[in-house]
Design brief:
By secondary structure, the protein is of the alpha/beta class. Helix content is 24%, strand content 18%. A six-stranded parallel sheet has the order 3-2-1-5-4-6. Strands 7-10 form a two-stranded antiparallel sheet. A two-stranded antiparallel ribbon has the order 8-9. Helix 1 packs parallel to helix 5. The relative contact order is 0.18.
Length: 200
């Protein structure tokens, strides 16, 4: 039986950089719109998050790990895992209520070894917010992975002379543009000279 869905991102990093903040804010807002909840798990006790994120009604901060939080509901947890043998499909809405993403300091392989059931989201790497968005479209929107419009490795125009190619897959919007968190393009433009590593 399908119940309310929860999207969980493991966040072990001691900080939450501007890139992650924008991603998490987008996930939280979109989760509310879909009548779902969003949780950051394994968060350090001293992790500081902006009020723009923590004030969102559907956002939850959890210092315990996924294993501890859902130890009695492990059979209802789906680990989004690029190494999984089976791809996520609309029918999985009847099998899973909690969808876990490894986050920046990726715990996917560790959680895989602990026996969480895995599903793939296709062969191309996605940003965290895109992975959650795609999962929600499949599970709550009942749309097959291959029926979702994507744009791979889009170019972001920095100025009239320079552009940067994003090394990820995104959902394509109605105008043929990649769906990104509000403020992300400006962040990329402003910090293009620093490289992606400093944005997270």
């Amino acid at each position: 039986m399908a119940g309310q869905k929860t999207y969980v991102v493991e966040h072990l990093d001691p900080e939450c950089g501007p890139w992650s903040t924008l991603e998490y804010t987008a996930i939280a807002n979109e989760s509310i719109d879909a009548e779902a909840t969003f949780c950051l798990s394994s968060a350090p006790e001293d992790l500081e998050l902006p009020g723009s994120l923590t004030d969102i009604k559907g956002f939850n901060l959890e210092h315990r790990s996924v294993e501890d939080v859902y130890q009695n509901r492990k059979d209802r947890v789906c680990l989004l895992d690029p190494a999984a043998k089976e791809e996520l499909s609309p029918k999985d809405t009847h099998h899973f209520d909690i969808f876990v993403f490894g986050g920046i300091l990726d715990r996917t392989s560790e959680l895989r070894k602990k026996g969480f059931t895995g599903r793939r989201l296709g062969p191309v790497q996605m940003t965290t917010d895109t992975a959650v968005r795609v999962t929600r479209i499949v599970i709550q929107g009942q749309t097959a992975l291959n029926d979702i419009p994507y744009i791979d490795h889009p170019e972001i125009r920095i100025d009239e002379h320079e552009s940067t190619e994003m090394p990820f897959r995104y959902v394509k919007d109605a105008h043929g543009k990649p769906v990104m968190p509000e403020g992300m393009v400006d962040l990329i433009k402003n910090d293009s000279e620093k490289g992606f590593g400093e944005l997270f």
